[in-house]
Amino acid sequence: MKESYAALGGRFEYLNSDCGYEKWSQYLIETLKGLGAGMSGVDIGCGNGYFTRALYKAGKDMRGVDVSPEMLNKARQLASAKGVRAEFLLGDITKLKLTRRVDFAVAVNDCLNYVPPQKLAAAFSHVAGCLKPGGAFIFDISTEYKLKNVLGNNLFAEDLDDITYLWFNSFSGDRVTMDITVFTPAGGGLFKREEERHVQYVHRVPEVTRALEGAGFEVLRTEGHLGAPLKEDSLRANFICTLSKR
User: Fold this and answer.
1) Is residue 1 part of a domain?
2) Adjacency order of strands within the sheet including 190-201
3) For every residue of the chain, which 3-state class applies, written as one string?
4) Does residue 142 surpass a pLDDT of 70?
5) pLDDT digits (tens, 9 = 90+) for 70-98
Protein backbone atom coordinates (compact mmCIF):
# COMPACT_ATOMS: atom_id res chain seq x y z
CA MET A 1 0.00 0.00 0.00
CA LYS A 2 1.54 3.30 -1.10
CA GLU A 3 1.40 6.71 0.56
CA SER A 4 -1.37 9.17 -0.27
CA TYR A 5 -1.20 10.52 -3.83
CA ALA A 6 1.69 8.30 -4.93
CA ALA A 7 -0.53 6.98 -7.74
CA LEU A 8 -3.03 9.83 -8.01
CA GLY A 9 -0.69 12.78 -7.44
CA GLY A 10 0.05 13.41 -11.10
CA ARG A 11 -3.64 13.32 -12.00
CA PHE A 12 -5.23 15.06 -9.03
CA GLU A 13 -6.24 18.27 -10.81
CA TYR A 14 -7.50 16.34 -13.83
CA LEU A 15 -9.68 14.08 -11.69
CA ASN A 16 -11.05 17.07 -9.74
CA SER A 17 -11.78 19.24 -12.77
CA ASP A 18 -15.48 19.42 -11.85
CA CYS A 19 -14.91 20.94 -8.39
CA GLY A 20 -15.35 24.55 -9.54
CA TYR A 21 -11.72 25.64 -9.49
CA GLU A 22 -12.42 29.02 -11.10
CA LYS A 23 -15.10 30.11 -8.62
CA TRP A 24 -13.05 28.73 -5.74
CA SER A 25 -10.03 30.75 -6.87
CA GLN A 26 -12.11 33.93 -7.12
CA TYR A 27 -13.40 33.33 -3.60
CA LEU A 28 -9.81 33.22 -2.33
CA ILE A 29 -8.76 36.27 -4.32
CA GLU A 30 -11.74 38.34 -3.17
CA THR A 31 -11.40 37.21 0.45
CA LEU A 32 -7.71 38.12 0.50
CA LYS A 33 -8.56 41.47 -1.04
CA GLY A 34 -11.17 42.08 1.64
CA LEU A 35 -8.57 41.39 4.32
CA GLY A 36 -6.11 43.80 2.75
CA ALA A 37 -3.58 41.00 2.38
CA GLY A 38 -0.21 41.82 0.85
CA MET A 39 1.38 40.39 -2.26
CA SER A 40 3.45 37.43 -1.04
CA GLY A 41 1.82 34.13 -0.18
CA VAL A 42 2.11 30.40 0.29
CA ASP A 43 -0.36 27.76 -0.91
CA ILE A 44 -0.09 24.90 1.61
CA GLY A 45 -1.16 21.50 0.34
CA CYS A 46 -0.99 22.97 -3.15
CA GLY A 47 -1.58 19.69 -5.00
CA ASN A 48 -1.06 20.21 -8.72
CA GLY A 49 -0.93 23.95 -8.16
CA TYR A 50 -4.21 25.32 -9.53
CA PHE A 51 -4.69 27.84 -6.72
CA THR A 52 -0.99 28.72 -6.72
CA ARG A 53 -1.25 29.55 -10.41
CA ALA A 54 -4.51 31.46 -10.00
CA LEU A 55 -3.09 33.62 -7.21
CA TYR A 56 0.07 34.22 -9.24
CA LYS A 57 -2.04 35.38 -12.18
CA ALA A 58 -3.85 37.72 -9.77
CA GLY A 59 -0.50 39.43 -9.14
CA LYS A 60 0.71 37.54 -6.08
CA ASP A 61 4.26 36.36 -5.43
CA MET A 62 3.55 32.68 -4.79
CA ARG A 63 5.12 29.51 -3.58
CA GLY A 64 3.34 26.16 -3.26
CA VAL A 65 4.05 23.48 -0.66
CA ASP A 66 2.95 19.83 -0.63
CA VAL A 67 4.00 16.55 1.01
CA SER A 68 3.61 14.59 -2.24
CA PRO A 69 6.53 14.61 -4.72
CA GLU A 70 4.14 13.36 -7.41
CA MET A 71 1.81 16.30 -6.77
CA LEU A 72 4.70 18.76 -7.00
CA ASN A 73 6.16 17.26 -10.18
CA LYS A 74 2.84 17.84 -11.95
CA ALA A 75 2.49 21.30 -10.36
CA ARG A 76 5.85 22.34 -11.78
CA GLN A 77 4.96 20.99 -15.23
CA LEU A 78 1.63 22.85 -15.32
CA ALA A 79 3.16 26.07 -14.01
CA SER A 80 5.92 25.96 -16.63
CA ALA A 81 3.42 25.27 -19.41
CA LYS A 82 1.32 28.26 -18.36
CA GLY A 83 4.19 30.69 -17.78
CA VAL A 84 3.72 30.81 -14.02
CA ARG A 85 6.91 31.55 -12.10
CA ALA A 86 6.01 30.11 -8.73
CA GLU A 87 8.28 28.14 -6.45
CA PHE A 88 7.16 24.64 -5.44
CA LEU A 89 8.54 23.09 -2.27
CA LEU A 90 8.28 19.69 -0.60
CA GLY A 91 6.98 20.22 2.92
CA ASP A 92 4.61 19.17 5.69
CA ILE A 93 2.30 21.73 7.31
CA THR A 94 3.12 20.32 10.76
CA LYS A 95 6.81 21.13 10.18
CA LEU A 96 6.47 24.03 7.76
CA LYS A 97 9.33 26.49 7.37
CA LEU A 98 9.99 29.15 4.76
CA THR A 99 13.15 31.14 4.13
CA ARG A 100 11.18 34.38 4.59
CA ARG A 101 7.84 35.36 6.04
CA VAL A 102 4.93 36.03 3.70
CA ASP A 103 1.78 38.14 3.80
CA PHE A 104 -0.75 35.33 3.60
CA ALA A 105 -1.26 31.58 3.57
CA VAL A 106 -4.02 29.48 2.06
CA ALA A 107 -4.67 25.77 2.59
CA VAL A 108 -7.47 24.65 0.33
CA ASN A 109 -9.36 21.43 -0.39
CA ASP A 110 -8.90 19.24 2.70
CA CYS A 111 -5.24 19.89 3.51
CA LEU A 112 -6.03 20.22 7.24
CA ASN A 113 -8.13 17.03 7.26
CA TYR A 114 -4.94 15.08 6.70
CA VAL A 115 -3.51 16.45 9.96
CA PRO A 116 -4.22 14.27 13.03
CA PRO A 117 -6.00 16.15 15.86
CA GLN A 118 -2.95 15.92 18.14
CA LYS A 119 -0.83 17.71 15.51
CA LEU A 120 -3.28 20.50 14.69
CA ALA A 121 -1.78 22.97 17.15
CA ALA A 122 1.71 22.34 15.74
CA ALA A 123 0.42 22.87 12.20
CA PHE A 124 -1.08 26.26 13.09
CA SER A 125 2.05 27.30 15.00
CA HIS A 126 4.20 26.55 11.96
CA VAL A 127 1.85 28.49 9.68
CA ALA A 128 2.05 31.42 12.10
CA GLY A 129 5.84 31.20 11.96
CA CYS A 130 5.72 31.68 8.19
CA LEU A 131 3.53 34.80 8.30
CA LYS A 132 4.28 38.44 8.88
CA PRO A 133 2.46 40.05 11.84
CA GLY A 134 -1.12 40.70 10.74
CA GLY A 135 -0.82 38.12 7.96
CA ALA A 136 -3.94 36.41 6.63
CA PHE A 137 -4.67 32.68 6.81
CA ILE A 138 -7.56 31.16 4.86
CA PHE A 139 -8.26 27.44 4.90
CA ASP A 140 -11.07 24.92 4.78
CA ILE A 141 -11.90 21.58 6.32
CA SER A 142 -14.31 18.92 5.18
CA THR A 143 -16.86 18.81 7.96
CA GLU A 144 -17.70 15.95 10.28
CA TYR A 145 -21.04 15.71 8.45
CA LYS A 146 -19.26 15.15 5.13
CA LEU A 147 -16.78 12.60 6.47
CA LYS A 148 -19.50 10.60 8.21
CA ASN A 149 -22.42 10.88 5.82
CA VAL A 150 -20.93 11.47 2.36
CA LEU A 151 -17.52 9.81 2.35
CA GLY A 152 -17.73 7.36 5.24
CA ASN A 153 -18.51 3.69 4.52
CA ASN A 154 -19.11 4.39 0.84
CA LEU A 155 -17.65 3.20 -2.44
CA PHE A 156 -16.82 5.51 -5.36
CA ALA A 157 -15.52 4.55 -8.77
CA GLU A 158 -14.71 6.21 -12.09
CA ASP A 159 -13.73 4.66 -15.41
CA LEU A 160 -12.02 7.10 -17.79
CA ASP A 161 -10.06 6.49 -20.97
CA ASP A 162 -6.66 6.82 -19.30
CA ILE A 163 -7.37 5.90 -15.68
CA THR A 164 -9.81 3.85 -13.62
CA TYR A 165 -10.05 3.95 -9.85
CA LEU A 166 -12.01 2.22 -7.09
CA TRP A 167 -12.33 4.12 -3.81
CA PHE A 168 -13.38 2.24 -0.67
CA ASN A 169 -14.07 4.27 2.49
CA SER A 170 -14.49 3.26 6.11
CA PHE A 171 -15.45 5.69 8.88
CA SER A 172 -14.47 4.88 12.46
CA GLY A 173 -13.98 7.08 15.51
CA ASP A 174 -12.46 10.39 14.41
CA ARG A 175 -11.38 9.45 10.90
CA VAL A 176 -12.28 8.07 7.51
CA THR A 177 -9.83 5.63 5.92
CA MET A 178 -9.83 5.60 2.13
CA ASP A 179 -8.27 2.70 0.22
CA ILE A 180 -7.93 3.50 -3.46
CA THR A 181 -7.01 1.11 -6.27
CA VAL A 182 -5.81 2.77 -9.48
CA PHE A 183 -5.52 1.18 -12.94
CA THR A 184 -3.62 2.92 -15.74
CA PRO A 185 -2.70 1.66 -19.25
CA ALA A 186 0.69 -0.06 -19.40
CA GLY A 187 0.74 -0.82 -23.13
CA GLY A 188 -0.08 -3.94 -25.08
CA GLY A 189 -3.56 -4.11 -23.63
CA LEU A 190 -2.14 -4.41 -20.09
CA PHE A 191 -2.85 -2.21 -17.08
CA LYS A 192 -0.73 -1.12 -14.15
CA ARG A 193 -2.40 -1.56 -10.77
CA GLU A 194 -1.44 0.64 -7.80
CA GLU A 195 -2.96 0.97 -4.35
CA GLU A 196 -2.75 3.84 -1.89
CA ARG A 197 -4.32 4.79 1.42
CA HIS A 198 -5.62 8.14 2.62
CA VAL A 199 -6.73 9.02 6.14
CA GLN A 200 -8.75 12.16 6.84
CA TYR A 201 -9.60 13.27 10.37
CA VAL A 202 -12.65 14.95 11.85
CA HIS A 203 -12.00 18.50 13.06
CA ARG A 204 -14.83 20.41 14.70
CA VAL A 205 -15.12 24.19 14.48
CA PRO A 206 -14.73 24.92 18.23
CA GLU A 207 -11.63 22.72 18.48
CA VAL A 208 -10.07 24.29 15.39
CA THR A 209 -10.81 27.78 16.69
CA ARG A 210 -9.12 27.04 20.03
CA ALA A 211 -6.04 25.67 18.27
CA LEU A 212 -5.87 28.74 16.03
CA GLU A 213 -6.16 31.13 18.95
CA GLY A 214 -3.47 29.20 20.80
CA ALA A 215 -1.15 29.78 17.83
CA GLY A 216 -1.80 33.53 17.86
CA PHE A 217 -4.55 33.77 15.23
CA GLU A 218 -7.77 35.73 15.44
CA VAL A 219 -10.65 33.95 13.71
CA LEU A 220 -12.55 36.72 11.93
CA ARG A 221 -15.32 34.44 10.71
CA THR A 222 -16.23 30.92 9.73
CA GLU A 223 -18.42 30.18 6.73
CA GLY A 224 -19.46 27.45 4.35
CA HIS A 225 -18.07 26.76 0.90
CA LEU A 226 -17.47 29.93 -1.14
CA GLY A 227 -18.87 32.05 1.69
CA ALA A 228 -22.23 30.32 2.07
CA PRO A 229 -23.76 30.18 5.56
CA LEU A 230 -22.23 27.45 7.71
CA LYS A 231 -24.92 24.90 8.60
CA GLU A 232 -25.11 21.51 10.32
CA ASP A 233 -25.08 19.76 6.94
CA SER A 234 -22.46 21.95 5.27
CA LEU A 235 -19.80 19.90 3.51
CA ARG A 236 -17.02 22.42 4.11
CA ALA A 237 -16.15 24.96 6.77
CA ASN A 238 -13.90 27.88 5.87
CA PHE A 239 -11.82 29.77 8.44
CA ILE A 240 -10.85 33.37 7.76
CA CYS A 241 -8.06 34.40 10.15
CA THR A 242 -5.33 36.94 10.76
CA LEU A 243 -2.18 36.61 12.83
CA SER A 244 -1.85 38.87 15.86
CA LYS A 245 0.39 41.89 15.23
CA ARG A 246 1.95 41.63 18.69
Assistant:
1) no
2) 155-159, 164-172, 175-187, 190-201
3) CECCCCCCHHHHHHHCCCCCHHHHHHHHHHHHHHCCCCCEEEEECCCCCHHHHHHHHCCCEEEEEECCHHHHHHHHHHHHHCCCCCEEEECCHHHCCCCCCEEEEEECCCHHHHCCHHHHHHHHHHHHHHEEEEEEEEEEEECHHHHHHHHCCCEEEEECCCCEEEEEEEEECCEEEEEEEEEEEEECCEEEEEEEEEEEECCCHHHHHHHHHHCCEEEEEEECHHHCCCCCCCCEEEEEEEECCC
4) yes
5) 999 999 999 999 999 999 999 999 999 99
Residues 222 and 121 grouped into a single domain: yes
* DSSP assignment letter at 147: I
Phi and psi of 217, rounded to 5°? -95, 150
Full domain range(s) for residue 189: 146-200
